[in-house]
Amino acid sequence: MKKIFFLILFAAFFWNCATSSAGLATSNVPIVNKKYKVLGPVEESTSWATFDIGVIAFPVRLALPWWKMDNHPADKLVNKILEEKQADALINIRFWNDRIILLFISINRFGVNAEAIKFEEEIPVQVQPNDKKRR
Fold first, then answer.
1. Fold observed for domain 18-119
2. What CA–CA distance (Å, rounded) separates 99 from 44?
3. Helix, coil or strand: residue 114
4. CB 16, CB 101: distance < 8 Å
5. Cβ atoms 27, 93 nearer than 8 A
6. First to last CA, the chain
7. Longest dimension (CA), the chain
8. How many CB atoms lie within 10 A of CB 13?
9. pTM
10. What is the pLDDT of residues 83-101, one digit of tens each?
């Protein structure tokens, strides 16, 4: 019985879900007075691992050292979605993230649910120069 109790205590101390959060955003670029066409819904997620020492976390990468990471995996995920759908922007964005801690390793996940859009071409209005001179 003592072994089971210590096993449960050990598991609870060294293995738990630390955080989980979610959020909303209207779009990832300004869309003021622009016409667009909805291409369809998208749902993607990505994950990465970090080595945690107290409050400092180092990304765990097999191919690249941590100091050569160019940008956050969430940014790469949004760019991947835009390239795959050949979209200009995302609207009605719902995102979530969570973290699972196993000893000194944290597994982070980030997910996005949104609608991909393509801006419609607007015909530029050309202004004719005024030939009359003002007096």
1. Translation Initiation Factor IF3 (3.30.110)
2. 17
3. strand
4. yes
5. yes
6. 103
7. 103
8. 8
9. 0.64
10. 999 999 999 999 998 888 8
Rounded Cα distance between 38 and 122, Å, is 16
CB 109: neighbour CB atoms within 10 A? 15
d(CA 52, CA 61): 14
Tell me how far CA of residue 113 lies from CA of 16, 27, 96, 109, 121, in angstroms: 26, 12, 9, 14, 26
pLDDT at residue 63, rounded to an integer: 47
Strand 56-60 versus strand 36-53 pairing type? antiparallel
* 117 neighbors 36 (Cβ within 8 angstroms): yes
Rounded to whole angstroms, the Cα distance separating 31 from 21 reads: 26
Residue found by looking up tokens 């080595």 in the block:
51
Residues in the chain: 135
